[in-house]
Amino acid sequence: MAKARGAIVVDIERCKGCQVCMVNCPTDTIGMAVEVNGKGYHYAYMENPESCTGCTNCAVVCPDGVITVYRVKQN
Amino acid sequence: MKEITREENLVYRRTPLMTDATLSYCPGCGHGTIHRLIMEVVEEMGIQSETIGVAPVGCAVLAYDFMDVDFSQAAHGRAPAVATGIKRLWPDKFVFTYQGDGDLAAIGTAETIHACNRGENITIFFVNNGIYGMTGGQMAPTTLEGMKSSTSPYGRNNETMGPPYKITELIAQLSGTYYVTRQAVHKPGPVRKAKKAIRKALEIQKEKKGISFIEFVSNCNSGWKMTPNDSNIWMEEHMFPFYPMGDIKVDGKLVKG
After folding, report:
1. Which residue of B has its CA nearest to A74?
2. Are B215 and B107 within 8 A, CB to CB?
């Protein structure tokens, strides 16, 4: 069965660290960074990049639209 | 990861119709999601140069900075009246108002009800978070019974402060409204449904069938004094039973309420 693999790119400086993406990620891919961005927010990042399926759930709920999603199908 | 993040594998990106300005909203606020959804629909319909928004007074007062379409700014609560004027001058443009509950359901009740009653061909986006967010979390007409706010610190008391009211159900009774629905944007499923509702609302405007009205039940984590995710859970548990999701009026016929 073809398996989808995905990746997200977070616009770190725009992220406000609200964590809404984190709880809505069905594969627990997203975590919050220990470091902070220029505004002092702990930004979202791919904690488990291997588990991302590129479902776009994180990006559609992100209030600030900081997440870009990519997806490839692999056999 | 490098081989995945290539242009040809792109499945979702922030719509270019949102400007590069950093949103002035608190972390986790639903306003940003709703702005983006409206702009995504405008992009899909290819009507950027045909769309005119009317910004309210409230948290979304700077909406014209974030959505890259023509905008006007109305006095507090008067957005439907301003939108009426714009639409009557340019009947072929897509005109929408974007208002919060303090703006639409309190000071602007008269303008809202009369614009809906006349059935102006505009779209009203109504963001209901049960509180006056921008001014510091004061009680609004939509504040739930028992809900604490800065002006009802012991919780709203229906006997002395009156009960909360559902303006969306109220305006659905008016003959001028064609499509009335209530949506939310706290989870991926509701976001996708909300986007379909926005698309439907703007299509109705194209066909000149009457007013389309979408209420978004949203969170105000700062005003409710919660984390964004806690406020979304609180919203599901407390707001949704009083403000149930779904269509109220479709094709000019009541389907609920």
Report:
1. B4
2. no
At B15, list the tokens: 């719509």
Q: Give the closest-approach CA distance of B183 to chain A in angstroms.
A: 14
CB contact under 8 A, B5 and A7: yes
CATH code for the domain in which residue B168 is found: 3.40.50.970
Q: How far lies B218's CA from each of A37, A50, B31, B101, B132, in Å?
A: 27, 33, 8, 10, 12
B9/A72 CB distance under 8 A: yes
**Can you tell me the distance from the alpha carbon of B7 to that of B210, in angstroms, rounded to the nearest whole number?**
41
Q: Strand B10-12 relative to strand A30-36: parallel, antiparallel, unpaired?
A: unpaired
B90: which 2 tokens?
Answer: 């340019």
What's the predicted TM-score (pTM) here?
0.95
Q: What ipTM score was computed for the predicted complex, to two decimals?
A: 0.94
**Domains of chain A by start residue, with CATH:** 3-71 (3.30.70.20)
pLDDT in tens, B178-193: 999 999 999 999 999 9
Q: Is residue B54 part of a domain?
A: yes
